[in-house]
Amino acid sequence: MSFLIPCPNCGNRSVYEFRFGGEVQAPPTSAAPPGDWQKHRFNRVNAAGVQAEWWFHRSGCRQWMQAVRNTVSNEVLESFLPGDKQE
Amino acid sequence: MKFRFHDKTIEAQPGDTVAAALYRSGQRIFSRSFKYHRPRGLLCVSGKCPNCLMNVDGIPNVRTCITPVHEGLRVKAQNAYPSLETDFLSVTQRFDWLMPVGWYYKTFTRPAMWHAVEPAIRKVAGLGEILPSGPREYEHAWMHADTVVIGGGWAGMQAALAAAERGEQVVLIDDQVALGGQACYRKRMGPRPDAIIARIRAAANIRLLQNSYCFGLYEGNLLGVLQRAPHPGASERLIHLRAQQTVVASGAYETPIVFPNNDLVGVMLSTGVLRLLHLHRVQAGKRAVVVGKSLQAGEVAEELRDGGIEIVAIVDPDTILKATGSSTVNGIQTRTGHFSCDLVVICGPRIPDNGFVAQAGGRIEWSEPQGAFLPTLPPSNVSAVGDATGEAVANTIAPLPTSKRAFVCLCSDVTSADLCDAVAEGFNHIETLKRYTTATMGPCQGRMCQLSAIGVCARETGRSIGETGMTTSRPPNPGVSLGALAGPKHHPLRRTPMHYAHQDLGVVWLDMGDWQRPRYYTDHLAASEEERVLLEYRAVREAAGLIDVSTLGKLDVRGADSGKLLDKVYTHRFSDLPPGRVRYALMCDEGGIILDDGTVSRISENRYFVTTTSGNLDFVQQWLEWQICATGWDVHITNVTAGYGAMNLAGPKSRDTLRKLTECDLSSGSFPYMACREAKIKGIPAILLRIGFVGETGWEIHCPAESAEGLWRAILGAGHEFGVRPFGVATQRLLRLEKRHVIVGVDTDALTNPYEADMAWAVKLDKKEFIGKTLLAHAAKDRSRERLVGFVLQSPGVPEDGAAVVVDGQPAGRVTSARYSPAQLAAVGLAWVKTSLAQDGVFIDLRVNGELLKAKVTMKPFYDPEGVRLRQ
Known about the structure:
The complex is a heterodimer.
Chain A: E1 4-7, E2 11-14, E3 19-23, H1 34-42, E4 50-56, E5 64-70, E6 75-80
Antiparallel strand pairs in A: 1-2, 3-4, 4-5, 5-6
Chain B: E1 2-5, E2 8-11, H1 18-24, E3 31-32, E4 39-40, E5 53-56, E6 59-63, E7 74-76, H2 103-107, H3 111-124, E8 138-150, H4 154-165, E9 170-173, H5 194-202, E10 206-209, E11 212-218, E12 222-231, E13 234-248, E14 252-254, E15 267-269, H6 270-280, E16 287-291, H7 294-306, E17 310-315, E18 320-324, E19 331-334, E20 337-340, E21 343-346, E22 350-352, H8 355-359, E23 363-367, E24 372-376, E25 382-384, E26 407-409, E27 414-415, H9 416-424, H10 430-437, H11 450-461, H12 465-468, H13 482-486, H14 499-505, E28 507-512, E29 515-521, H15 529-542, E30 545-548, E31 553-558, H16 562-569, E32 582-588, E33 594-604, E34 607-612, H17 617-627, E35 636-639, E36 644-650, H18 654-659, E37 676-681, E38 684-689, E39 698-704, H19 705-719, E40 725-726, H20 729-738, H21 773-781, E41 786-793, E42 804-807, E43 810-821, E44 826-834, E45 843-848, E46 851-858, H22 868-871
């Protein structure tokens, strides 16, 4: 594993500068049953393909960001700071 | 220059490699083969074959043919006993019938049989032995370029110059000691292109890495480069090189021809002979037979003749029957007769060196006209030029006679007969054939044998070479030393502001993550840990003790929404915490699993002071920042861990001690338990928290790091008359255990929730929303399977951390912490047990030193269960 992640603040950086924060998943509502929260905590989609992920630029700007990565090719399609991109 | 080869002193000339100097001195046998211990001499003289591996200065498996001589080197042969010339284990070749291909799998079919012979096999198997060596320094470096060119031959130099003229930043990597490639040792290629070399050296935007080799092309165009002897202070430097474009110009290398006794000493590749002749001015022999197809062999013969070597004959590979000689070659037997000689020069097939294209994802396919595997469809950021593309390569595949003495793989002594046997046994795919016979898996990584192995496989299976295909190219190739991969010994070390005060007191250190903390103090006296800990313990319980807690994570949380954030991430409520108060803080994840604990103090309306466990600071800070991402909340989190020194003064005399240094009212009436104040102590501004991890009246004092050592010394000075002592982590661990205080990560694990850890009091389920609420509410109703309980051992002894809890002969839990408690006069501890056992007065058995000892469960602290002393 030696791909690059384009950090919105720092530019292209080695993946080893980052901490992986897992898949971007919307948490269940506070009224949701425990089963939904268990799934949220313990289950992963583990997509073979494009998925949105959390990354923390530990050895750089120390900001949390999201990156859209193809898990098969490790190509990072885009990255942005949360809040910068409102769907 | 002189160096040592066993007990001989060898003279070397400037520019010599170890192997060249040894060859000039008359040494002919350089190694013994892996399996049969057959004598082997120089073959490729370019660092590609396994024949010259020796131990140099204690480092095994060094390719001596490319290792420059230094004054005073110590060189030793390996895999030979008692000497290279007489190796007792060479007797194994007489018993080759006992060791057919795959004999490990065929012979050691039962564990008992393997265990019986394993010690003997371990002794003789493997290559080389690690001997004591001097200190070696390794470096890591990172480089970036527009274009990297691998190979400093004609094609590589042209590619580098072309890229440089386009204005690109270029790195040119050459594994030889001088640029020029074949032109350095093949007169047929014309004179060395000195003008081009000069232009490369002059170009400001070409960085030349000489005597450096690439070992892998990884994802993201990351090229692994190993630079040998970058400067006198380092033996190797590993370079992480990223380039937009990679140009593979690594050329083609020559490989052997397969015939009986083709491994005898004196059978050499033509390039090896020419390299010895032109690079080192060493004649490999006096009378040579050149083996090869007419045109190629004729050119080589002419060049050798010019170099003063007599050419006995030029022999077509198709006509060879065998090489003769017992250990050193003395002739070649062909269909037409016998030619006596002392050197056989092999003009073998040339293999385009294009593994990097394959590693980058390019396809490699067989091309009949060139007789080679060539890159097709390389990815857009990788290209090949020169001989690596097969240009000027035209191999005819010589016959591959089946013989038990015709060696295909020199690294592990695999013969053509072995390969035929393996195919007959069903290993007819090139990948399974490789794994079963280990051909192509030795130190040369298939450089010498891959094409021959594929050829035999193709013939035996009736397929073409193209259909048979080649095995996957994987990095690292060539190998890299573990030291180079590990890099320099940079171990970060963090010292607290009071470090040197501890040192003055006499201390035994404890490494905790990057931090160094006092384990216990020695007063520079020789005494056991038990004695010193007991002394410190008594001071805390009877007078007072002072411990350095600067390693605690410290976060300054400010802003109007700080309370909202802390309510979200901790299980307790903090928005209603009055300024001047402290609360215990327990952090859980969405699953209700304990992540960390600490304290939260409200300094003022919009300012909180948060402490975390020493090892979890980074995690907690990132967790808090994660939770405020894109919320727009008015919260600012600053890590002030290094900015504050911290110490905890605890014990009945702590108030008397501190009172001497501050005007702050320390009475319980105005500064009660779980209160916090900002105050000056001896003029130093500090935050005081009245908390009690160790169970005594006490204050945790945070002050600017630069004043911490002075304050530490001042408090110890003020407390001297009361018997105040410094205490270390070992004593703190005992004190907290007597209070049954949990250490997150020691007594809890990655699945522990607060209910199981008996900390339900720290969870406020009536809070509207916080991380983990749903599953904590679920856990509160659910009777979990395990509980963390305290125990008092009923007989002498102390269980080890991790000791088993046994009930009715069945495992029923485990001990997480245990110490001898002076308060209970028995060992006490924490243990995970089944919920049914988590009641005061229940007896459980613990395995202590192999014996089962009774222990009594308790759900209360072992010391001052009502917490009276804390509040005094």
